[in-house]
């Protein structure tokens, strides 16, 4: 099935912008939202010039503003004449070591990556229930499979929670017509991964986004991208004793 009208949150940079460029090249209509309006406008201009035959709607949205999420999704849907795929991508990778007095940093990460994602999920399911079908995509992380000591503790917890929500939804909507996909990216070059120490496992943005979009188009229940080396590494992460996960921080 071709999902022609795609909404992407966190679309102003990184994987979100990369997915927008890739889907635009496929001729899909796009609804793009993020906090940084200027970057969204620049992206819209770029894609409109390259692909004049597609529709592109943009809107400013901080996903932690829960009341705005349904309003913005509805407005974008109206502009495109419907939405048949929603990609819950907005997220942050910041955080601090637990117990260092920086509760605000870890709270912000969990609120953005998990609580705000829940609001987006609720909104997406309402839209798809009304229209009778749709594809919900949750961008989690390979780090949702294990706890990682240090500054990524809250990030790992938030992604583990998001993956769990996705697994619950996969069970609930197993027979369709709403499909749910959980994508677990490894380290893909972006603003979020710029400070990562695991550069040996990093792939460039183009390679990572290509694998990401290909997986989304297949509409699996769950996928790790890029498959190599992350599919076997995820299996390892699930069984490693906690102290040995530090190299992935």
What is the alpha-carbon Rg in Å?
A: 17 Å
Percent helix range: 40-55%
β-sheet strand percentage:
15-25%
**Largest sheet, strands/sense/barrel:** 7 strands, parallel
Tally of strands: 7
Mean of residue pLDDT values: 93
**Unreliable stretches covering 5 or more consecutive residues:** none
User: How far do the termini sit from each other?
Assistant: 38 Å
Strand-pairing-aware structural class: alpha/beta
Strand order of the largest sheet: 3-2-1-4-5-6-7
Shape label: globular
Number of helices: 7
N-to-C SSE string, H for helix and E for strand = EHEHEHEHEHEHEH
Characterization of the model:
There is one protein chain. With 249 residues, the protein is α/β, with parallel strands linked by helices. It has seven helices and seven strands. Strands 3-2-1-4-5-6-7 form a seven-stranded parallel sheet, with helices on both faces. The chain is globular, with a radius of gyration of 17 Å. The chain starts with a strand and ends in a 10-residue tail after the last helix. The model has no long low-confidence stretch (mean pLDDT 93).
Features:
alpha/beta; 7 helices; 249 residues; 15% strand; single chain
Q: Briefly, what is this?
A:
By secondary structure, the protein is α/β, with parallel strands linked by helices. 46% of the residues lie in helices and 15% in strands. The chain has helices spanning 14-25, 37-50, 68-80, 103-131, 153-172, 205-218, 227-239, and strands spanning 5-9, 29-34, 56-60, 85-88, 134-139, 178-185, 222-225.
